[in-house]
Amino acid sequence: MVDRLLARPAHQSFFLFGARGTGKSTWLRTVLPEGPTVAWFDLLDLETEDLLRARPQAFAQRLATLPSKVRWVVVDEVQKLPRLLDTVHAVIELKHLRFALSGSSARKLKAGGANMLGGRALSLRLFPFTERELSAGFDLADALHFGTLPQLLTLRGAAARNAFLRAYALTYLKEEVWAEQLVRKLDPFRRFLEVAAQSHGKIVNVANIARDTGVDDKTVATYLEILEDTHLALLLEPFEHSFRRRLSKKPKLYYFDNGVARALARTLETRLAPRTSAWGEAFEAFLITEAHRLASYRRPDYRLSYLRTKDDAEVDLVVERPGKRTLFVAIKSSGSPDPIEVNRLARLAKDHGRARPMLWCSTPVPLRVGEVDVLPWQEALRHCF
Length: 385
Hints:
The structure is a single chain. The chain is of the alpha/beta class. Helices cover 42% and strands 17% of the residues. The strands form 3 sheets. A 6-stranded mixed sheet has the order 9-10-11-12-14-13, with helices on both faces. Strand 10 (314-320) and strand 11 (327-331) form a beta hairpin. The longest helix is centred in the last third of the chain and has 22 residues, at 277-298.
């Protein structure tokens, strides 16, 4: 059993969102096991779903008859029956029960006008495993190639893992997008997912994606919203001092997991090799998504973005930390810093006030090169998050 970094709120109801296969049900069973003080409603169980779909009032009746010692009620996959949230809202007000409500996305709930409990429940997210969670079981090459979805730990060999990731991509299309009616036509969205996966770690060019997908720009914008709302991707916004200017430029697209991105892009059969551009791109994408996961778990007030100047100088990751110096981070998979890149990073940090320049790479030991801290990437993540 892998200990997750996500902490359960002690005294407040919460929604738990996350892409399929990230371990939401397992986490809930761990932190809120069914017993004398916890009642479970598993909507993945067909009998339970059919009963409550036919008779939603049965949910309220069951809650009304719970023993007084019950403190928590878990509803797994609540987006299957959004009407239950009206009952949850009423019960929170009257009986002061706490609820744990899981689902892969809030998009369907909001689109259907579901009761989101008016701020009475926190919103948590669960991601694939982090390097910190896997600890000694973490392997960088595997993480870059296959990603870190929990089920991969049960599989051995590239063939089995590749087959799982391909099936995951198909399952996502069928169960998450089509079955939940998030798009009207599946074929254009299937093409979009593949084209977008080829932009994993790159600045989003809506016009190019629309052309290659065969849809208009507005449809691509909607598809990108679906990726974010279903937690399949992160859109990393450009850094600006002005919020209005921040929204005026193009974001970078990062799928939530390297393995899923490679499955959608149909590149699983191409093994990544160190010291190649493909390895470097996968390494950067991994660290960006890893930082995003850790910030969500431990530093939710941090804001992540990237910076690109008019002359194409770039900061891979900007970490704004309230009350602390903003971090300007360059990410390189190599073990030795390039003096030209280090100097460029130092100048960019200086041009933007008190930003602290850092280089995250594969160096075996921390270094100080001029004004730039050069850190082993594992140590950098622990230091910053």
